[in-house]
Amino acid sequence: RDQDSAEQTPMIIHRAPLGTHERFCAFLIEHYGGVFPSWLAPVQVRIIPVASAFFGYAEKLEKELKSRFIRTQNDLSSDSFGKKIRNGAISKVPNLLILGEQETSEGSVTWQRHGTKERSMLGFEAFLGLLEEEIRNRIDWRKSAS
């Protein structure tokens, strides 16, 4: 803002090619507050099985997501379920997939977005279609939801 409180576009004039990439990354981090949309996030999906009995299904989904070039992590740690969810929130992963008995038997996932408590259960293929569209079209769901 200028002295009259009018919005102004900030500008940086820089001649050296070194440092411009770092500066651009810094602008992105500042703009998104570190909570990147799915298409930009270093880890796009974290899979959280609620118990070790569901690790096989988690690994199957991870393999499928990675085969479609979706950056995915599986949380197969011995941490409690609550801690796994918290770790996903702290890491600012945009999409958490929660897997339990019902999801495994139905071939579905429970999907939780970063920054929300809402969870949706849907078929894995339906989730995959929504995520791929979001990535392909560079959609920031937080802006389209408001």
TrEMBL record:
One of its GO terms (molecular function) is threonine-tRNA ligase activity. InterPro entries: aa-tRNA-synth_II/BPL/LPL (IPR045864), Anticodon-bd (IPR004154), Anticodon-bd_dom_sf (IPR036621), Thr-tRNA-ligase_IIa (IPR002320). GO terms for cellular component: cytoplasm. Keywords: Protein biosynthesis. It holds the Pfam family HGTP_anticodon. One of its GO terms (biological process) is threonyl-tRNA aminoacylation. Residues 44-133 form the Anticodon-binding domain. This is Anticodon-binding domain-containing protein.
